[in-house]
Amino acid sequence: MQSLQQKASEYSGVDTNDAFAIDETNLFEKLGLQTFINLSTNFYDRVYDDEEEWFRSIFANSKKEDAIQNQYEFFVQRMGGPPLYSQRRGHPALIARHRPFPVTHQAAERWLHHMQLALDTSTDIDADSKTKMMNFFRHTAFFLVAGNELKSQNQQVPCKHAAKQIGTV
Q1: CA gap 73, 124 in Å, rounded
Q2: In this structure, are residues 81 and 33 in contact, taking their beta carbons and an 8 Å threshold?
Q3: Dist. CA 115–CA 121, nearest whole Å
Q4: Do 140 and 98 contact (CB within 8 A), yes or no?
């Protein structure tokens, strides 16, 4: 059985070493807080204006300002900065936090489309950092897809005790 990281690499086409190349450089020190705020703002402006209703509906119950803050705080924390996200929200627990959403291959690709456009238009991020970040984002998006599939499998296959309980009620 493949691990979620292995599935993420398979689905994303990004080797784990490339996905975690963001750890080779402190991108927070290199780029600064405002760069992450700008990237997340640019990204969520695109997401909330997406022409696809199915994709916008994923974010319908979230305020854009909250989504921006959650994202840039997570990015800052993950890319070498202070633990802003954890201080405010606790452990990131990405799979658990994304559990309510339909994190499918199609949704991951759409998310990545907007992130690529946001990175492409970010003039304050150098090309090497953009590549490292996009590899991390791509791998992580498909890590969440793999986690979503595992959740779906667990919902469809009840434990052996559930079947016995149903018959005895």
Answers
A1: 18
A2: yes
A3: 10
A4: no
Separation CA 47–CA 114 (nearest Å): 7
Please, which contacts does 95-101 make with residues 24 or more away whose CB atoms are closer than 8 Å?
95/4, 95/143, 95/144, 95/147, 95/148, 95/151, 98/144, 98/147, 98/148, 99/148, 99/151, 101/58
Per-residue pLDDT of the chain (169 residues; tens, 9 = 90+): 678 889 888 888 999 999 999 999 999 999 999 999 999 999 999 999 999 999 999 898 889 999 999 999 999 999 999 998 766 665 665 655 666 666 789 999 999 999 999 999 999 999 999 999 999 999 999 988 888 787 666 654 344 444 444 444 3
The closest alpha carbon to 133, from 23, 11, 10, 12, belongs to 23
Q: What is the pTM of this model?
A: 0.83
**Cβ-count burial 49-86 (b if 16+ within 10 Å, e if not):** ebeeeebeebeeeeeeeebbbbbbbbbbbbbebeebbe
Length of the chain, in residues: 169
Would you call 130 exposed, middle or buried from its count of C-beta atoms within 10 A (0-12, 13-18, 19+)?
A: middle
